[in-house]
Amino acid sequence: SLPHSLSEILVTHRGEWWQKSESDLNHSVSIIIPLTKQDVGNLPKVNLEKIRAEFFDFDLFSYDSSDEILDTPLSALTATVFDTETTGLDPVGGDKLVSIGAVRLVNGKVREDQTFSHLINPGREISIESQKIHGITSDMVSDKPDSEKVLSDFHRFCSQETLVAHNAAFDMRFLELESTSVLFKQPVLDTLLLSSILHPNTKGHSVDDLAKRFNIPKETRHDALGDALMTARIFEKMIALLNKAGIKTVGDAIRASKESFYANLRY
């Protein structure tokens, strides 16, 4: 027999497991064990067309910000919660934005009267596979502005506010590559990372998992504004739990996020 149980190994190495599908007749599971820095540097990348990467090569923790913003209590935070839809999963390989949606959070509360939602002409065909996910066809965006125009408008909408997203590095990588006239350099909070800090021994940190956990009604999924609204409601619910955990300010949340094992993963 093994000297340690699987549970002991996962706790010791800050790992996590989950069943791949409730309908999986073989009851197969996935296991994540955090990588060392040396492992991360040597890890080969997977085919991004086959799996949505948890993180792209984007440093969420590199930002220009004043101490005043970092010292802002989460309960008093004004932020922009956003989501994107894209032609595919590989921004470096040529995939582009097709939609961006956002809602403002004021004093830690969702303001559904303050939203941003725009379709984007990606300048390329939208694959059938992507259309099946978000329902946006090439015809629907043929007369829409390009990403440069839309991201310039979005930059004005979010100004220097803190940004919030789920699996934020995915969205931020697209913003970084497609916005040449504006830079998004404000702090970014990721509800995926924060969920893994709040619930380290709970399986499942997807938007759907968190909506179920916080008893939040589902919006239209895989619609940028609908996903942004759901993420905003999740973050709103998280604030009280983060406070109880001693994570009270934007700076606290960023520092805690760096401790998440998800923050060190590359795919």
Question: Top keywords for this entry?
Answer:
5-stranded mixed sheet; 267 residues
- Percentage beta strand: 15-25%
Largest sheet: 5 strands, mixed
What is the typical, i.e. mean, pLDDT? 83
Helix content: 25-40%
Oligomer: single chain
**Computed CA radius of gyration, to the nearest angstrom:** 19 Å
Number of helices: 11
- Series of secondary-structure elements, N-terminal to C-terminal: HEEHHEEEHHHEHEHHHH
Structural class: alpha/beta
Our measurement of the CA-to-CA distance between the termini, rounded to an integer number of angstroms, reads 33 Å
Strand runs, count: 7
Strand order, sheet with most strands: 5-4-3-6-7
Structure description:
Helices cover 36% and strands 16% of the residues. It contains eleven helices and seven strands. The strands form two sheets. A five-stranded mixed beta sheet has the order 5-4-3-6-7, sandwiched between helices. Strands 1-2 form a two-stranded antiparallel sheet. Helix 8 (191-198) packs parallel to helix 10 (224-244). The longest helix has 21 residues, at 224-244.
